[in-house]
Amino acid sequence: MPLLVALVGAVLLVTAGGATWGVEGWWAFAFLTLVPPALRWAAGALIVTAAMPFVFAWWRRHGAGMETWLRRWTPSWWLATLAAMAVFWVFREQTWHGDALYKVTLLESTPLAANPYIWKEPLDSLLEHVATATLRPLGPGPEVAIALMSVLAGGVFVAMVGLMARWLTDCRVRRLAISAALLASGTSLLWFGHIENYSWSTALAFATLVAAIGHLQGRMPLWAVGLTGGAAVSFHPQAAFVLPALLIVLQRRRWLRQVLVLAVSGLTIPAATVAVLLMLGAAPPGLQGGFAGDPQLFWTPMQALAPAQLADVLQNLWLIAPLWLLWLGATLALLVTRRARGAGAGSLLLDVRSVWLLAAAAAGVMVYLFAFQNDLPRPRDWDLFAVVGPPLTLWGVVAWLWLGERVASPRAAATLHHVLMVGLIFAGCYTLFWVGVNHTYTLLRPDAAERERFLRYRLLDLTTLLPEATVTPATPICAEAVGCERVALTTFTMPQNGDTRPVIFAHAPAEIAIPLTLPNERTFLWLSPALDPQAWDWGGDGVTFTVKVRTAAGEETLWTQHLSPANVADRAWQQAFVSLDAYRNEPIELMLITDPGPAGNDAGDRAGWGMPWLLRGTLAP
Questions:
Q1: Are residues 420 and 502 in the same domain?
Q2: Are 558 and 592 in a shared domain?
Q3: pLDDT value at position 67?
Q4: Fewer CB atoms < 10 Å away: N or C end of the chain?
Q5: What separation in angstroms does the CA of 218 have from each of 210, 213, 618?
């Protein structure tokens, strides 16, 4: 079983979820194509090696020594938290996900009272505006303010992970396993300067569970549980899916008093947040058109169970809880496994109510994962569901360890421990690659409908270099030189939707050679080649668009596509993304070429390169 788990994990990492074999659609693993193959193979080899029997035999022989070493050298709670925050800041992400571009634009130009996000994540919006206003005189923009908030939330999360591990077990090795499981997930990217609004709600939703476990163990007052849960919901209402589990902490004889304590403490921060926002001029929240203007918050059962939707949900789950299959297996096994006669008490410090609390919290966030309707595609909006990762993982790793204490056979228990070790190594590699890719690359998914927001990534508009370009042939396309230029600046408007874009007009045949020295960073071209709408019905066999680069070493064709007005799909703006990473810090001639179609017929070959931008960054896989 350990070897089987290791082989599956190694194949997923080495092949980037099958991408290197030509398997497409596994977006939860697509980012691995940006990880150097040598690193992926090394991770695969490490996982398979860890699954070998002799490795686990060595681990079991030296387990006591490892426990002693951990007791002696485990850093203090506060030191570990501060060190983690330093790592989060140094390796903060360079890729923005979800609505991050829109959020930063709002913070740069929109007052708090007019922010459309304000009732979707009230306390988060309030603190982001406060942090942005505080830092603005010092120079940093809102992205730095949000990144600092993210790192601080990460510090809270790491501190809570340490507390939870201490309160769940006295065994240092198991504490390490619990902590590693909670940190080895895509959710951890939320702490690396994540430019979005889910970091604090996720951290505090988990802190609510920690406080609840602490209360069941007599370590925390009930009002602290309610206060933390209320704060989590104030940052983002998604945290509410953890709160029903708190009913399990109530005692039958004192339930009315405890409900009042939870209610009053839980409403304190939300009420204060609403009051402050109203005092600052925010319009009261209304339900016209749905909550905060969203007419549908949840999928219908038929929508939620649609194959495409389910596939996206499961891939989202791979990213935020990469060991979810193990956690599911442990849950199913616990349902059918009775405690073995003679089994020891084990090292988990759990009573029945604690077990039910963790299980209920995991179930609550899973309902959110499957049922909540997200407006953006999940590959872009995966972080909306990152809150699911910690509660599910906490339940899963506890269930796995608890299962190991309940099985009758010592050999079966050893196998379960070995599988967990292999799984944690896989999850750790996967998460390190995820964080590393988002730190190393600025991954972009350009969208022409949002092109104004991508101006922050634009290094150059190639239309500004047209006066320096060499055009071949230089002859006009009709007898009159003026008004019949073969190459000129103009605009095209698509009649079907009114989309107008600036264009380098290039009647085929035409070659535009633009001298360019590329910066020493990753760049790519974002082009919108198109046929001139006024010539769609003029006949001809279309135009072939080609992008080449000429250097001292010669010419290289980077992209080509033929467009014909006879094809309905070609009567629109096209998208071309051309990587120039290979020419960093190098002088080149960028050649934009339009040629007549295969028959050599140049009738009606009016064409153009729309919105020719050079962007810094890398096209997201």
A1: no
A2: yes
A3: 67
A4: N
A5: 12, 9, 51
CATH of the domain at 507: 2.60.120.260
| Closest residue by Cα to residue 369 from 391, 352, 385, 392 | 385
**Locus of tokens 């009573």:** 351
**CA separation for the pair 89, 592 (Å, rounded):** 41
pLDDT of the residue at 96: 93
Say if residue 464 is in the same domain as residue 521: yes
Residue 383 inside a domain? The answer is no
Residue that is last in its domain, among 391, 423, 441:
441
Please give the Cα distance from 389 to 183 (Å, whole number).
10
Judgement on whether residues 580 and 431 belong to the same structural domain of the protein: no
Tens of pLDDT, residues 525-571? 999 999 999 999 888 889 999 999 999 889 999 999 999 999 999 99
Q: Do residue 465 and residue 614 come from a single domain?
A: yes
What predicted TM-score, i.e. pTM, was given to this entire model? 0.90
pLDDT of the residue at 255? 87
Helix (H, G, I), strand (E, B) or coil at 471: strand
Residues 428 and 517 in one domain: no
Among the listed ranges 172-181, 294-303, 555-564, which one has the minimum average pLDDT value?
294-303
In a domain, 122, yes or no: no
What separation, in Å, do the N-terminal and C-terminal C-alpha atoms of the chain show? 33
Question: Tens digits of per-residue pLDDT, 188-217?
Answer: 999 999 998 899 999 999 999 999 999 999
Looking at the fold, whether 452 and 431 belong to one and the same domain comes out as no
**Non-local CB neighbours of 265 within 8 Å, separated by 6+ positions:** 222, 223, 224, 225, 226, 227, 230
Q: Is residue 415 part of a domain?
A: yes
Which one, of 613, 192, 617, 578, lies nearest residue 444 by Cα? 617
Mean per-residue pLDDT of the chain:
91
pLDDT at site 290: 59
Determine phi and psi for 219, rounding to 5 degrees: -100, -20
Shared-domain flag, residues 537 and 600 = yes
Question: How many angstroms separate the CA atoms of 566 and 540, rounded?
Answer: 9
Name the one residue in this structure whose structure tokens are 């609390």. 357
Distances from the Cα of 180 to the Cα of 113, 220, 391, 484, angstroms: 41, 25, 14, 67
Q: Are strands 443-444 and 618-619 parallel, antiparallel or unpaired?
A: parallel
In the chain, the number of structural domains is 2
Distance CA 465, CA 481 (A): 21
Q: How far is CA 545 from CA 301, 514, 525, 533, 608, in A?
A: 46, 16, 14, 16, 9
pLDDT at 345 over 70: no
Structural Rg of the chain based on CA atoms: 29
Which pLDDT tens digit goes with each residue over 70-114?
777 777 778 889 999 999 999 999 999 988 988 998 999 899 988
Question: Residue 516 pairs with which residues in a beta bridge?
Answer: 588
Segments forming the whole domain that contains residue 474 = 448-619
Pair 210, 166: CB distance under 8 Å: no
